[in-house]
Amino acid sequence: MRTKIVGTLCAFAMVTSANAAIREQPVTYTDGETTMKGFVVYDDAIQAKRPGIVMVHEWWGITNHMHSEARKFAEQGYTAFIADMYGDAKTADNPKDAGALSSSVMENPQAMEQRFNAARGELAKQASVNPQRIGAVGYCFGGAVVLNMARAGADLAAVAGFHATLGLNTPAPAPGSVKAKILVLNGADDAFVKREQYDALKKDFDAAKADYRVIEYPGAVHAFTNPEATELGKKFNLPIRYDAKADQESKAEAAKFFAADLKK
After folding, report:
1. pLDDT on residue 9
2. Total structural domains within the chain
């Protein structure tokens, strides 16, 4: 019995040691008079400054999914900053409240830009970050936010949207005004995205001479990277579902995309 206990403790110590390098710290910051509560996630085994990625959450707010995604980016050698787009880290546990929270941001483009820029500013100040190499990634609602920020000419090197809704609420960008390279990773069967929205996005980015790419994954629907999506879809009768194949393939594309544009 003692041998088994010692073996178990040793195994636990090895796992703990292996995971000890990834740090996640809460960060309180402000957007005007609104208190924002985000998280900075990084690998403290890396000594040099590294690229940073602003992460924008789904309409539910900052969930376990966002924390998991941030840790993956930290493991790839980035400092990730989970932005709080709602203030006071508000979250929703049902579609009605989630819709109200996300609409409060999307229906006020100025507030959306201010809150994103506040998060970007906090990320740029982190000791582990090279402020000249910052990108952004968003999921669902967050995908729309980061695409809008790219359209608005935000100081970002690369922007990726996973199962991004395409509610574009910023003016069409002028030629040459889009600084970021852009990657859209969506499900081909996403009921929340209309074909005419893709057409409008491509028309605007083509006119702006933006560097962008859109990939659609056959059979994948909305929220395909979120392991909790299938259960949530059943619970609330929503057309959302986790798709392991699309998740893996889209993450591989994003990893190549960010490495090419942030680590060069």
Report:
1. 33
2. 1
Query: Distance between CA atoms of 102 and 132, rounded to whole angstroms?
Result: 30
Neighbours of 4 (CB within 10 A): 8
Residue 244 domain boundaries? 23-262
Please indicate, yes or no, if residue 7 is contained in any of the structural domains: no
* pLDDT value for 3: 37
Q: Which residue has the tokens 């994954």?
A: 217
Report the chain's mean pLDDT, rounded to a whole number. 92
Please give the radius of gyration of the chain, using alpha carbons only, rounded to the nearest integer.
Answer: 19
- Is residue 10's pLDDT more than 90? no
Name the pLDDT band for 261 (thresholds 50, 70, 90).
Answer: very high
- CATH number, domain containing residue 107: 3.40.50.1820
End-to-end Cα distance, the chain: 53
Inside any domain, residue 8? no
Name the maximum alpha-carbon separation found in the chain: 71
- State pTM to two decimals: 0.91
* CA-closest candidate to residue 22, choices 70, 66, 65: 70
β-strand partners of 56: 138
Contacts of 164 (CB under 8 A, 6+ apart): 138, 139, 140, 142, 143, 144, 146, 147, 184, 185, 186, 193
Query: What residues form DSSP beta bridges with 181?
Result: 158
